[in-house]
């Protein structure tokens, strides 16, 4: 498949330099042919778009990632941005999901995109900074103290109103909510009942994790990777570890891979149960909320007993795990999760026959499969709108290719479909945990890698790049790490699943009533922290 | 609907006895390091310099501890950890607990200023059957006008600074501010940075700090109890 792809791209783009980047095929093409090549890959070959990675040192480069298959994993396109009057063409006209990524890159690097409908005021909010800073540029000092620019204030930002007409008004929601909710702002335009147009404004919580990582040691940055999104901490810390291992060519022993799989699934289970609790809560079904809440708290306690931390912090490490885990504690974990399985099933059964609950979810917040593909939806949200894509099955990592599990898939794309996907995946996670514990029984639980960056001097001299593709609880995440000669991080890029899914969120609310809004929001179950980084 | 009622009764009471009785169930706290006289530890092992040398003595600054466990004895460190959760303390510049007339009904406004989601999830869990803060007279309120306590979660990002200030100004006096989590108290691993403040107290005055990354629900509950004056702070 790859050879025909490359041959076709060579036909389209004339000059193509083919090379390898951390085991992935990399094609360097001229920016004039970028649109054509993307159109070919996305529309003709139906590849999934994975994101754009920008890098700046002496030159500025952009890497476009397309997911391939089990063997070749992914295809990357490279574009160089020379200083010239011809800016890079925006691919958002061809792949709508790239729209926000281009806005992000423009805000952070100042790389312009020709033909993009709207740039600016995205990651860096205008009312706080104006257009004064481009923080991801190398010359920008991350440690400079918080400062205010004169003339910039709350009046500087005016929400863009789109709907005009008699009786039209805008309803702002956020960033402070009526309960413990994450900071995000919505502008809902309406004439009364129906939401005509919704706009999501994110990055209130932008903490510049990617910039903070630059120049710091690997052992420091793993803490950042773990803590930027607390509800999927281990998956992202694992993504970072795998990327560094990929860059340095470290191979982990079998039992480490199994244990990591186990912890990933435990996290997925807890994440999904928390989302189910959120959905029950949004519909006002008190007993169901309590039932799911009890499961959620019990899973947190199980995680804490297993690892020491309720959110699985302080476990991931390069080349292994920070803590030695015995087989006994794993089998105890499997037992406890199995005992939860019955209760999860009972909760699902009861919810399925609660008509007042289903009325609020069914045919509410619909995203159709075509929209989902265009916006590159991933994770449970994507799988609820017919996007049959799960990295665990399609591009397996750790031990997932040896395990037997089913991927959830629904096509309706409404709130109920999302709830079903969450339930199905939670149950599959328990199934995987049991299988992994069986496999652990047969493998030896010793052998450790003592990771020391000094041992990799030869590899580091080439400034290696590592890429990892990990299915975080909320979907496919990409971690890109470039190390410098000393073994510090030169560039860290995280493409999170929440970023793609938030992009599509507004579509699901348009055309539905006001009172459906919190339910749609809960049924998406998206993390703002994961998006904002 | 009746199956839900039956299910609810069948589940029984899950709520903790805390604060009447100490809760010692496993898995309710991530714990924190303790220094004993015999412990010799190299402060450089701590990524946020929570362990530091003061003269000849080594001390732990819990407001900086992010539970990375690198100093813990089962992960290559030397310190043992205690499984406590009564961690909250009043700040030196703060106003102390609320007056007794407020004790039976306290309304809380929660503001997320950049948390990773874990702290916020723990705050949300206070409404969970296991903790159920309503039984103690704590309520989350949607409006700053009705709030007695402002709960700030996460390092204050520049983008949230204005919203936080407005919420604080809109609250009637007497009011108290509570910084929840290491990131809110000291910035955690997100400082020094151009976009996050080094603590909430840089923006608004803070009365009570609850360290922990994230502080478990009982730690936040203990903080609420001593801030509302329902309970006397235990000596640390």
Plain-language structure description:
The complex is a heterodimer of chains A (533) and B (236). With 533 residues, chain A is of the alpha+beta class. Chain A has three domains: 2-129, NADH:ubiquinone oxidoreductase Nqo5 subunit (Beta Polymerase, domain 2, 2-Layer Sandwich), CATH 3.30.460.80; 158-201, no CATH class; 209-532, Cytochrome-c3 Hydrogenase, chain B. In chain A, 42% of the residues lie in helices and 16% in strands. Chain A contains 19 helices and 15 strands. A five-stranded mixed sheet of chain A has the order 1-2-5-4-3, covered by helices on one side. In chain A, strands 8-9-10 form a three-stranded antiparallel sheet. In chain A, helix 8 runs antiparallel to helix 9. The longest helix of chain A has 29 residues, at 254-282. With 236 residues, chain B is of the alpha/beta class. Chain B is globular and about 60 Å long. Chain B has helices spanning 2-11, 118-124, 158-170, 182-186, 217-227, and strands at residues 32-34, 51-54, 57-60, 80-82, 89-90, 106-112, 138-140, 149-153, 176-180, 208-210. Chain B has two domains: 32-82; 89-227, 3-Layer(aba) Sandwich (Rossmann fold), CATH 3.40.50. The interface between A and B is large, with 76 and 75 residues.
What is the CATH superfamily classification of the largest domain in chain A? Cytochrome-c3 Hydrogenase, chain B
Straight-line distance between termini of chain B: 49 Å
Poorly predicted residue ranges of chain B: none
Number of strands of chain A: 15
Tally of alpha and pi helices of chain B: 5
| Discrete helix count of chain A | 19
CATH topology of the largest domain in chain B: Rossmann fold
Domain count of chain B:
2
* Global geometry of chain A: globular
The termini of chain A sit apart by: 35 Å
Reported for the largest beta sheet of chain B, the result is: 6 strands, mixed
The percent range for strand residues of chain A is 15-25%
Rg of Cα set of chain B:
19 Å
Q: What is the correct CATH architecture of the largest domain in chain A?
A: Orthogonal Bundle
Q: What level of helicity do the residues of chain A show? A: 40-55%
| Helix percent band of chain B | 10-25%
